[in-house]
């Protein structure tokens, strides 16, 4: 579904730059349709990226098409929900990657602990051998 027309207070940032639903500056293009040939409009910066395009649309001249005025609130809500879903999915993917890194780090730590345990066992064994040698030397001196 595409959002057409209907500017909203969310479409301009605090310095008056028109932004798409990602809250990044929108790009301007020229319409190629017969009824609006050459007419300039704002669109999402990511319009070529299927899963990232928020379908933001607004005519540069600010006009709202008659059929779009009644749907602009619904379209805006749907687009906001789609954007929230996209952001939640991206957050989940980041957390999945972070979890994978944590698991890898834990495996490294577990390996390090295993190595330290083996080294400790060797040190204890060497101390036992050293003690046996010292005791053997003492008993042969007597």
TrEMBL record:
<feature type="domain" description="GRF-type">
    <location>
        <begin position="20"/>
        <end position="63"/>
    </location>
</feature>
<protein>
    <recommendedName>
        <fullName>GRF-type domain-containing protein</fullName>
    </recommendedName>
</protein>
<keyword id="KW-0812">Transmembrane</keyword>
<keyword id="KW-0863">Zinc-finger</keyword>
<dbReference type="Pfam" id="PF06839">
    <property type="entry name" value="Zn_ribbon_GRF"/>
</dbReference>
<keyword id="KW-0472">Membrane</keyword>
<keyword id="KW-1133">Transmembrane helix</keyword>
<keyword id="KW-0175">Coiled coil</keyword>
<feature type="transmembrane region" description="Helical">
    <location>
        <begin position="115"/>
        <end position="136"/>
    </location>
</feature>
<dbReference type="GO" id="GO:0008270">
    <property type="term" value="F:zinc ion binding"/>
</dbReference>
<keyword id="KW-0479">Metal-binding</keyword>
<dbReference type="InterPro" id="IPR010666">
    <property type="entry name" value="Znf_GRF"/>
</dbReference>
<keyword id="KW-0862">Zinc</keyword>
<feature type="coiled-coil region">
    <location>
        <begin position="78"/>
        <end position="107"/>
    </location>
</feature>
């Amino acid at each position: 579904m595409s959002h057409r027309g209907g500017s909203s207070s969310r479409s301009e940032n605090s310095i008056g730059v028109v932004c798409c639903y990602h809250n990044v500056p929108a790009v301007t293009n020229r319409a190629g349709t017969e009824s609006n040939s050459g007419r300039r409009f704002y669109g999402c910066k990511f319009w070529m990226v299927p899963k990232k395009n928020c379908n933001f649309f607004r005519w540069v001249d600010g006009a709202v098409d008659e059929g779009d005025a009644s749907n602009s609130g619904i379209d805006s809500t749907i687009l906001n929900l789609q954007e929230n879903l996209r952001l939640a999915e991206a957050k989940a993917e980041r957390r999945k990657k972070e979890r994978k890194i944590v698991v890898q780090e834990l495996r490294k730590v577990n390996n390090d602990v295993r190595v330290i345990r083996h080294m400790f066992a060797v040190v204890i064994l060497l101390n036992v051998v050293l003690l046996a040698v010292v005791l053997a030397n003492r008993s042969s001196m007597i």
